[in-house]
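Quarterly update, task 2.4: adenosine-5'-diphosphate-bound model.
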Amino acid sequence: MSVSGDHTVVLRGVAHRYRGRDADVQALAPLELEIGAGEFVAVVGPSGCGKTTLLQLLAGFLTPTEGTVTVGGAPVTAPSPDRGVVFQQANLYPWMTVRGNVELGPRLRGVPRAERRRIAERYLELVGLSEFGGAATYELSGGMQQRCQIARVLANDPAIMLLDEPFGALDALTRDRLQDELHRIWRGSGKTAFFITHSVEEAVYLGTRVLVMSPRPGRIVLDEQVPFDAGARTAELRATPAFVAFRERIAATIGQG
Ligand code: ADP
Ligand code: MG
């Protein structure tokens, strides 16, 4: 995995309003945001505050009704494999094997068969699915499906990973394990992660930087670096006074304290 070029994400005066039949919904208030390459930005906020809308603007699935989104100075106008999206529900193609799903991006980009097979094996191994390449996706557990989805995104070697509550539907043990795995994959990759969650604990555990959004229309009401380094994530970290104090302060900001 390598990242080259400028992948700074810049939002200037970005707002989004959905047009409704009877009324419009102002999902996001105008906001300013700059994300440096390689950051792990974790975003928390109450349900309906515009988190998914913000992610879809970064992905290029939506165009802001006000303001501009740029990556490396270039406006985001459409989705790109360079900005990989991981959803809460794995949306794997059930008519392809696990490996077929991971190979899909390289295949669409015309990568020759042997090379894309190598790519798939590499990322399946990275997410612990080497033995399941030939399996049907519906044979996988929820946690394994999320691993597969992450491998599928990584196979495009995106500079930016956009994750929308990817572990929200998993049981606690699986979620904790996948958090550690995602952090390990991100660490040293040079990739930018933009990770949405409704769990303050998860945001503080994974992020190098935590953003808190207000209720709709979403604004950024807190934007802070976490007070510990980006090294390996372990269960012990969760119990340290620095972790607990920071987590409690973040929770208080969104009224969960
Ligand atoms: P979150 O991800 O934080 O829960 P969303 O970004 O999904 O919030 O939604 C923000 C607000 O915009 C919510 O009030 C939601 O109902 C509304 N909304 C989302 N998508 C649409 C849409 N396609 N049309 C109209 N309103 C929408
Ligand atoms: Mg959402």
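Highlight for this quarter: Residues 18, 20, 25, 27, 45, 47-53, 216 surround adenosine-5'-diphosphate (ligand 1) (CB under 6 Å).
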